[in-house]
Amino acid sequence: METKSDIEQTSNKLELQLEDQVLLGPYDYITQIPGKQIRTKLAVAFNYWLKIPEDVILKIGEVTQMLHNASLLIDDIEDSSTLRRGVPVAHHIYGTPTTLNSANYVYFLGLQKLLALGKPGCAEVFTEQLLELHKGQGMDIYWRDSYICPSEEQYKLMVKRKTGGLFGLAIRLMQLFSESQIDLSQVTEFLGLYFQIRDDYANLCSTEYEQNKSYCEDLTEGKFSFPIIYAINSHPKDHQIMNIVRQRTKDADVKKYCVQHMVKLGAFEYTKKVLLELESQLHAEISSLGGNPHLTKLVNELSQLYKT
Question: Which CDD domains match (predicted)?
């Protein structure tokens, strides 16, 4: 027979479960349709060098994926997005306040899981990398909302912070548990740049991207992505691209015209050239570190986007 104490414990447990359902609603919504799991694949690939225990890599992979998904909830609000992974964005279902709270809650759940690993340095790495992520995101938003087109070098520094923030988090955490002294900073930086420039290219050129988000979403957002930056800065007397970016248009015909004009300005050819250079640098760096078949395979898979 249950005692009063047992009943109270059961009641408290059910209340906590209900609370988590409420707090994690937007997060659970976005994770019901998994992404490409690139960060998890990267963690497995880097473990070819670092050789940390499987249970630790699984925990780090879980935390990194949690932070990535939480950051997407916030990104979609900041970017006024409409689709994510082919479904309406979470804040259009749950509202902006609940979605923001859910994302921030998951950030701290991730930190809690890292602290439970009991390894000195986890909190420091977490803090440093999340600061970098927010610095990069902040500059990206500032340029967009101030209608300031950055230089290519400014863009690359922003990406190093924004995209490299979560890439660096997983790898630096893994290094805390590894006996290897291998220097992975250069390959991590190349990967962050490669991944973001490829994503910028896909946003304006990929039919798969169009299905999962919306057509040329970066133009509607008013974002200064890599191809757009090149188109504007390499042709300072041509103001058409800048004018379209300023409008944040949802008109498909205007966006199609913009893409066609960017083709004429050589923006996509230049972006492909930079991607091929980064791909070559990645392969050279991987080779200099003794090779890594998992990472080489992943880069080769990602490269198919701009080679077909």
Answer: Trans_IPPS_HT
